[in-house]
Amino acid sequence: MAINKNSVWRLNGAEGLSDDIYRVIEIIPHLDCIILFQLTDKDHLQRPIAKMLSTFTRWSRSGIAVFIEWEAPYFLLVAEEDISPKSKAKRDKNFSLINELTSDSEFVFAYATSKRMKSLAEYAKRKGVDRKKVSRLLNTYWRLGLTKNAFLPAYANSGGSGGERFAMNGALGAPRTSRTLGVERAPKYVLNTKDKQNIRKALNKHYLKVNGKSLKESYKQYLRQYHAEEIKLADACKRAPIVPSLRQFSYWRNRLISEDTIIRKRSTERDYLLKKRSVIGSAVQDDLVPGSCFEIDATVADVHIVSSFGKQYALGRPSIYSIVDRATRMIVGFHVSLYHASWRAARQALVNCFLPKAEYCARYGVNIDESEWPCAHVPKRFICDNGEMIGLQAKEKVVPFTELSFTPVYRPDYKPFVERRFKTLNDDAIHHLIGSTRGGKMVRGDRDPRKDSIHTLYEVTSMLIDAALEHNRDILKSLAFSHALLIENDLNPTPLDTWKIYVSKHMHALSRVEPSEVIARLLPSEQVSMTASGIKYKEMYYSCQQVEDQNLAAIARVKGRWQMDARIDDNTVNHIYVRLNEKQGFTQCYLLSRNAMLRDMPLSEAEFIQDWMDVHEERSPVTVESIEMKKRHEQIVKEAKDRAKNNSVSFSDKVRNTRENRREEIKRTTHSFSDEGKDNKNDIQSKANVVVMLPRRNRKLKDK
Questions:
Q1: Which of 151, 349, 531, 626 has the smallest CB count inside 10 Å?
Q2: How far apart are CA 309 and CA 605, in angstroms?
């Protein structure tokens, strides 16, 4: 390595020199000489050391002399504009005293090789200073890097900063003084080594614990344990006790125990890792291309919703499932439902992630092109909560597509981007809605948001889709500093553009899967019935072209219904997927017009109707009127039985002359009605009393 002036070398085994660190302060090639200065001895005045340059070169090649980096003292690392005028003046004055000497290589050589130098004494006399002062300034200059800033005053080292002080005669620091002359303050307590040990014990016992006592309460416990006798004596003598003050206790807490130890011991492991640990790393440091890792999580939306059939039917707060690509911050999957965080809701978000988005958005009135949300891929791995995704169903259904990774319990910081997206969605689309809880920022006395809720699940989902699309178009500064392709192609640092450029350059970890496989594996499995009216599922009827071509409804009407396997999309009731034949896949079947009222609604609305029916059946299993009617009917039957019991006749007498009995009954009943209108004497009365016999039919003609 090249040997330069002001370089620092470590010598080990050099002939004639002790093993130490040396600075090269002068090189004189024509004399084959190099001048060294030893750096570690700061207590004595030293002279430079002259050695042959060729010998030092040989030492460097053989490893006896090794070049090292020398770190300048902290008080030298200061900008020129930050140096005070007083320090500058002192620095410049001292530098002017030795500048003439240090710039003269002949003087440096003579100073290193001569035992006595009359010229140095004459120079000091000419400058009007002591010779030893010039020698001290030369030592300082050579030790601190051959720069005039070596003469900056190191005031930060004054007073023994950072070292422990020991009181020899009385307490350290200013004495306690009263604000007025009317009172006398107690003398200060001088702490010894035993007191410091007791302070440490008290802190460990009371303060350095999870949910430990406050510093003031720990101080009181310390006094009770170690200074009880002094406090009792002072109380008896009617004076202030001579004990350590709270300020002294606090001071020695900071001196005896590091801040990091205080933070760690007063926090639970979860709280420390979640909120107080350092965050030097980044979640994207190992996932720099799309598809390396997707984060999935759920939260409850900050808004109360109502049913589509009336705002009087409150449904509570829906759950939002979101899937975010870690590398690009792109929202790649989305689902809003009334299900709480569960595998049923999570699988719907996964289906949305793996399938194209245009059809899904169109269901909620948001018409987009596939290029506006070009995410229909399977990632290399998912990172998710140690919750609903850890079950056997998730492993069986998702692991064939990709890998699942689970965060530790109560550690949302392992998936920070999806957590941050929830705040973005709530802030952009939810908190301004009527019926919003505004993230729990409610003031006592505010109106209950459930009373004002007016939005349906369809409307909230539509607005959240718009918010997700807007987020994918937002400029994120962090993307510009982690993805060079954006700068190379002069693209906006948005999740959408980042996703597109990496996919177009084939720099990703994404893969695709067939929609039919996604439907079969991930959508909820249900059993449906083939009936005479179509395929029945939860009182809704579906059909498709194959059902009509094979006339399956007619077969079901004659031979009876049968069960079929189906897959249900919770986002809409417009269609379901049915396996019509055991040897074929799932066929999409559409909702029939008889259930047109439910068209374009989510499945939760159909379930709401079923709940509504159940409630009404529970409220009224039988009507009050039917109870009274039943009693009246029973009374009529009882009276009829009693009457028949009192008038016993044979069967032949009972059926004899049925026609004449019928005729007489008609006369009696019609006569009773005519008696009520005796005042109206007209032809109607006479005609009402006449019975007209119709001719009997000819049975023989009928048989022919």
A1: 626
A2: 8
Query: Looking at residue 303, what DSSP letter applies?
Result: B
Which of 219-228, 279-288, 304-313, 648-657 shows the lowest mean pLDDT across its residues? 279-288
- Sequence-ordered alpha helix ranges (H) in 523-655: 545-549, 552-559, 603-619, 624-646, 651-655
Q: Is a pLDDT exceeding 90 seen at residue 695?
A: no
Average pLDDT for the chain: 84
Give CA–CA dist 386/411, Å, rounded. 9
| Structure token digits, residue 388 | 């609903």
Tens digit of each residue's pLDDT (9 = 90 or more) over 501-554: 999 988 888 888 888 888 888 888 889 999 998 999 988 899 999 999 889 999
pLDDT in tens, 188-208: 888 888 999 999 999 999 999
Q: β-pairing, 381-384 with 294-300? A: parallel
Nearest to 58 by CA among 1, 118, 113, 100: 1
C-alpha distances (whole Å) from 490 to each of 331, 471, 478 are 23, 20, 16
Q: How many residues does the chain have?
A: 704
**Can you identify the CATH homologous superfamily of domain 294-504?**
Ribonuclease H-like superfamily/Ribonuclease H (3.30.420.10)
- DSSP-derived secondary structure letter, 440: G
Query: With b meaning 16 or more CB within 10 Å and e meaning fewer, what string describes 471-498?
Result: bbeeebeebeebbeebeeeebebbbbbb
**For residue 346, what are its two tokens?**
């999570």
CA Rg value for the chain:
49
Say if residue 616's pLDDT is above 60: yes
H-helix or E-strand spanning residue 33: strand 33-38
Residue 146 has pLDDT above 60, yes or no: yes
What's the pLDDT at 392? 57
Residues 354/377, Cβ–Cβ less than 8 Å: yes
Report the distance separating Cα 18 and Cα 47, nearest Å.
14
CB-based contacts of 298: which residues, under 8 Å, 6+ apart? 319, 320, 321, 322, 341, 345, 346, 388
Cβ-contact 216, 271 below 8 angstroms: no
Q: What's the rounded Cα separation, in Å, for the pair 579 and 519?
A: 11
Instruction: Assign 63 to helix, strand or coil.
Output: coil
Domain residue ranges in the chain: 8-74+87-153, 193-273, 294-504, 525-619
Q: What is the dihedral of CA 616, 619, 624, 630, to 10 degrees?
A: 80
Going by the DSSP 8-state scheme, the letter that residue 326 receives in this structure is T
Which residues are registered as beta bridge partners of 181? none
Q: And the tokens for 50?
A: 């002259």
**Locus of tokens 């179509």:** 534
